[in-house]
Design brief:
Layout: E1 2-5, H1 6-11, H2 13-21, E2 26-30, E3 33-38, H3 70-78
Parallel strand pairs: 1-2
Antiparallel strand pairs: 2-3
Length: about 80
């Protein structure tokens, strides 16, 4: 895969983007460190984004979930009867 310096990428961006669109991805580096990978929109990203912390612990929903604390909620909004 082609690796280009950021200055080179700035100077030749149009042709680099055209090449990437044709299936020739490239990497832009800054100070010798790879920063971004440019790929065609037609290529699929193979990594699945990870949702940190979402549903990491098994949990269950109580059978009375729809009516839990119903009396307290009603008294809060309607006042005590």
């Amino acid at each position: 895969m082609k690796i280009v310096n950021i200055r080179e990428a700035q100077e030749h961006l149009s042709s680099l983007v055209e090449d990437a669109a044709k299936g020739k991805p490239f990497i832009i580096e800054m100070s010798g460190k790879p920063m971004v990978k440019v790929i065609s929109m037609d290529e699929t990203v193979t990594t699945i984004p990870r949702r940190l912390g979402f549903m990491m612990v098994p949990m269950s929903i109580p059978d009375d979930f729809a009516t839990m604390e119903q009396d307290d909620i009603e008294s809060t909004f309607e006042g005590d009867k």
